[in-house]
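Standup notes
- DV: blocked on the single-chain target, sequence here:
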Amino acid sequence: MKRPFPLWVAMTLSAWAISPASTANAAAEVPEPASAWARFDGRQVTASGAQGMADRSAGRYAKADDPVRIASISKLATALAVMRLVERGALDLDRDVSQVLGWPLRNPAFPDRPITLRLLLSHTAGVRDGVEYALPLDARLDVAMRDPKAWDSAHEPGAYFAYSNLNFPIVAAVMEAATGERFDRSMQREVFAPLGLDACFNWTTCSPRAVRHAVVLYNAGGSVARDDLHGTKPDCPVVPATDGSCDLTRYPLGRHGAAFSPQGGMRIGARSLATLGMVLTGQRPDFLKAASLAEMTRAQWTFDGSNGDTEGGFHCAYGLAVQILALPGRNAQCRDDPFGDGRTRIGHAGEAYGLRSGLWVDPVSGKGLAFFATANAADAPKGGSAFTAAEEAMIAAHH
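- DV (later): unblocked, structure below
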C-alpha cells in the first residue's frame, strides 16, 4: 500500500536531486523518505509520529522509535556524559586535557595556551577540521593533532568560535583516559542506561531489536548512504585499520577517540531523542544536577560581529555542545530562529548523509521537539532562517 507524500513535497522539491520538470514523475516512482518527530515536556512525550520508508529493500515504513544516525546531536549527548563525569570529579572542565591524556595537546601557534574541555565543547579551542577526523583503527589522534592544519593559527584558544567535528574525538579520548573505558561503553553507562534508552554509538551497544529497525540513510539521489544493515550489526563498527583489519583490541584508549564517531554517530529514535531532550528541561535532577545543566546551557560564546564563524548566521550563541537559538539582543547578522517566533531555544541541529535533525527545548515553557528528515540534498534550499526549508517545515508542522 502506498502512503501519501505531503511532508516530502512540502519540504523540498530537491529531496532526490531532480529538476522541477521531472518532479511529478519522480514522486510517483520514488518512495517517500523517512521522517519522524516527537513533542515533549519535562515529564513525557506528548505526541509523536513518523512517515516514509525506513528501508526500501525491506518495504519497511518508519516508526517514531526507529533508530537513525542522528548526526551532530550526538555532540550534545557526549556533553551530557562529560557533565556527569565532572559531577563525580572524574573530569574538570577547566583542567589542561594534556594532563589527562598523557600526551601534549597544543596549538602549534600558541604552545603556551592549555586546551580544556570547556574550550573543546564550546568550539573555541582553535581546533579545525583541516585533517581527517574519521580515523582508521590503527591511526593515532596524538599524531594527527601535531599537524598544523588541525589548528587555527590566527586566533588563540578561547578567542574565536568555529564549529569543528574534530573537537569531539579529543573529548572522547579524554573520557577514555579518565575512565579507562571505551567511549561507546561509557556512553551506554553514563547516558543511555540511566535514561532507559535503546540507543548507541555505531551500533555496538544497541539491542538486536534496534538494529532490526534501523533507518537506512539514503542520499538525495536515492542511493544508500549509511546503515543498510539488513537486520544485523555491522561486521566492523569503526573505520577499519589501514590494512583492512578490524581488531578492536588494537584500539588505544585515550589515543584515538574517533572510532565510535562521538561527533555524529549516535543511533537513536525520535521518541528516545525526546527523552534525551527532557534532561534539558531541568526535570531530571536525578540524571544531571541543576548547576551542571545551567553551566552546559549558558552561552559560553556569543557572536559579537567578529569573534567567530557563524556559518551564515546559523551559529550565534553556543554553550557546552548546546546551540542557543534567538538569544535576545543578538547581532543583526544572526539568522538562527527556524521557529520564527523570536523565542530562545536550546538544543542542537544535525546534518549528515542526507539527514537533517533537531532537538530543541523552550527553557521557559519546558516544551520541546525532536525530529529528523532523511534524503535531503546537500544544497537543500534555506528557509526564512539559516536553517533549511526542510527543517523549518518539520518545526512548523509539529511544534
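- Follow-up: The first helix runs from residue 6 to 11.
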